[in-house]
Amino acid sequence: MWSLGSLYRRFIFRLSISPFLWVLGLFLLLASCLHTVLFTGGFFSFFPGFSIVLIPAVASILPGGDDRLSLPISDLAASFAQVLSLASVQVFFLLFTVPATFWMPAAGSVEGAAVATGYAVLVLYVASASALCTFFFSLLQNRGTAFASSSLVLALFSYAHVAAQYVGLPRFVSSFLMALSFSWHADAASKGVLDSRDIFFYISAFLFFSCAAAAAMQWRRGNSSWNFRRLVALVLAALILLVLDSNIYYARLDVTKGKRFSVSRYSSSLLAELDSPLSISYYRSSSLRRLYPQVRDVEDFIRLYAESAKGVEFELLDPAEKGLEGRLEGYGIRGQDIELSSASGKILSKVFSAVAISYKGNTEVIPFVMGVGSLEYDLTVRIQSLLRGRKSGLCIIAGNGLSVDGDYPQLLSWLSLQGFSVREESPAVLDNGGLDPIGGDCLLLLGSSELSLWQAQAVLSYIDGGGKAFIATTPYTVAVEGDWSASESGGMVQDELVRLLMKYGIYFKDGMTASSSCFQLTMMGEGDTSKVERLDYPLWPSILPQEDALNGLSLFWPCAVELDGEVAEQEGLALVAGIRTSGNSWQSGGEDGKFITNPFSVSPSALPGEEEGSFTLSACAYRDGKPALYVLGDQYAPSSRMLAFASGPSGAIDTRMLEFISDGILRLEGQGELVKLKHKGERAGTALENRAGGEAYSLGKALFVCLAVPLLLMLLLFVAVRAARERFGRKLLLTWGKSS
User: Fold this and answer.
1) What pLDDT, on a 0 to 100 scale, did the predictor assign at position 689?
2) What is the pLDDT, as a whole number, of residue 227?
């Protein structure tokens, strides 16, 4: 009589000597590496689709139902031995994919802990899927039929949660399919969160299909007694109860850097100030939860947020079921249209995922939320407004002749959504003392070429009096709505504010800052759109990710600054450099106050005599250890016209510059902790997903480390296994007999 351990070892040997297994492992390595490294795709989003064929193919190598009938071991032990051996060899080959995942931090940011949780659940996924395949190969006599059946069912289990996108199904059916989805239950772990509900799901699936495989063998032996059927029913009922209980009582472990899925101390201390009940209502359409697994994260986080303090109540509401759409309209919340399937075809359906926070008769809302990336920031900044009775005030002035509402509307909307109380003023307000440092409002000044000497002096008087200011300007102007011609603002020293900023030790360079790391323009021929030319435009530098710009920035005709700490110290200030260009940048000079800005005429590299290197494009002046002034050498990047260029053809707005400005204003107002909250979820997407691009990334080096080295190691192991088979194979194959 064989034991489970001895049969497991024999199955492992049977698998390891099969060339077909090594071919499958090779395809897994190639496909995953190319998908992750070359196409920068998400590893875990790739694996379920690939495993639909991979796992049944590996299962086909081991003995089928007829072969197992003759094994001198119980059917349950044989099933577990087969499942464990299948899972073991696949986990072994998954190890070869790890370099591709861990190589990605060289060009972006992938957290090791999040990768570890992703692979941990991946092991459970493989074990569950292996058990499913073992069941079909035990039940069905024909191997081809077993392979096709297990692949089909595995596909259904892997993508059950997306069925509602393509097939009109009743709600309870969609919810049931979502609960069965293998991919759905892996979503949280791939972000760095271990959820007991997901773990119990995979364990239950593993046990269920392993026992089902044993039951299938008993059925093939002709055992259909009442005791056997009762045992099967009891096991099934026990596993169902286990899954149901795990959804009622569960725990989540957040292993991400910065605890992105946990409530911060700042939020907890803010909630401790509550002296009356606060209610948080999450209005979520049920169809969203069926389609997008990340909305479960939203619900879980809001629950956790509410449970972190006394006096906070949470309720989850479906606007359609409760008839609450009228209330939402009163809050100014409008649904978003998404495409759904129905019996009559594709239809647009209005869905909600909004949060309303009520305290002492006042309400703040988050109009739409689909992930936890900045959710804690959104909740905390609104609760802070409700508790303390006022929003952060912000005065915006366009000093470059442009219009705030006409040229910077997206910036206005963004700042309002960030919780600022925004008011737009004309430069004329500077003539009559309209800026009051004591009032506490921060100043955002966009450009300065149109400011008079008195207006520029009023800005400095405001700063000297304790006011906080964010100034985005350059010593020249560009015809952004025309031919992009650029000229100095009447000569550098005649931009009055630029000249006065020298008082603080902030000097603008005499030229435009260009870089070979830059935006690529797509130019079309006049009258012939088939003629397309793409060319780099060095005057639109791309800033690589850095501390003050975690996702990088796109800048437009910027101007670098030089900082003189000794001069600033005389004014009681300390200067700190902010964002910097890459090392392959230069100062593109002009002639007679004019600059060459034509994309076809701009030099792609520095001309003789032009200064080269890495340049500072922003700076912060501190007074008594607190930020008092931000200066950015770019007045056009926040404009809607330039944001459209930065956003590209996708239609999604590039918010990086808007984030940079709002972060600076928050720091000026002493809300640095809120900035940390906002970027706490910077990597809220799947940890095994795409990496950020960067100059340090070398495709050739990545392919060598992630593909060539693992491939060589795999081939060496295969040769070693073949050699071991030649040495010991005869003896082991005689023991195995004719079971193959």
Assistant:
1) 35
2) 61
**Residue 654 and residue 543: Cα distance in Å, rounded?**
14
Tokens 């992750």, residue located = 36
C-alpha of 630 from chain center: 28
pLDDT at 32: 81
Are 61 and 24 a contacting pair, CB within 8 Å? no
Q: What is the DSSP letter of 560?
A: -
Question: Of 293, 287, 365, 362, which Cα lies nearest the Cα of 319?
Answer: 287
Residue 1: the pLDDT is 54
The CA–CA distances, whole Å, from 153 to 68, 83, 85, 182, 686 equal: 23, 17, 21, 11, 25
- Write out the two tokens for 672: 């640095």
Residues 6+ apart with CB under 8 A from 252: 188, 193, 194, 195, 196, 261, 300, 304
Asked if residues 561 and 647 have their Cβ atoms less than 8 Å apart, the reply is no
The span from the CA of 215 to the CA of 231, in Å, is 10
Q: How far apart are CA 371 and CA 685, in angstroms?
A: 9
Q: Which class for 408: exposed (0-12), middle (13-18), buried (19 or more C-beta within 10 A)? A: buried
State the pLDDT at residue 243.
Answer: 55
Structure tokens at 329: 């309209």
Closest CA to 136 of 153, 155, 124: 153
CB 405 within 8 A of CB 413: no
Distance between CA atoms of residues 136 and 130, nearest Å: 10
Using N-to-C axis directions, what is the helix angle for 409-417 and 656-668, rounded to 10°?
50
For residue 164 the two structure tokens come to: 């509602």
Bridge-based pairing state of the strands 345-351 and 336-342: antiparallel
State how far the Cα of 622 lies from the Cα of 635, in Å rounded to an integer. Answer: 22
Q: What's the average pLDDT block by block, 10 residues per block, for the chain (740 residues)?
A: 79 88 89 70 72 90 67 79 92 86 53 78 90 88 88 80 56 60 70 78 85 82 64 64 56 74 86 91 81 77 87 88 80 76 60 90 88 85 83 86 91 86 88 65 92 91 92 92 78 74 94 91 63 84 88 92 94 94 90 83 90 95 94 94 80 85 92 84 41 46 79 88 70 50
- Residue 685 phi, psi (nearest 5): -75, 175
**Element housing 540 (H / E):** strand 528-543
| pTM (whole model) above 0.85 | no
Question: 210 is written with which tokens?
Answer: 């392993």
The residues, ordered by sequence, that sit 6+ positions from 677 with a Cβ below 8 Å of its Cβ are: 264, 266, 267, 374, 376, 377, 380
Residues in Cβ contact with 669 at an 8 Å cutoff, skipping those fewer than 6 apart: 392, 442, 468
Strands 392-398 and 594-595: unpaired
**Taking the CB of residue 84, how many other CB atoms lie within 10 A of it?**
22
Distance CA 114, CA 257 (A): 9
Task: Give me the phi and psi of 555, to 5 degrees please.
Answer: -115, 155
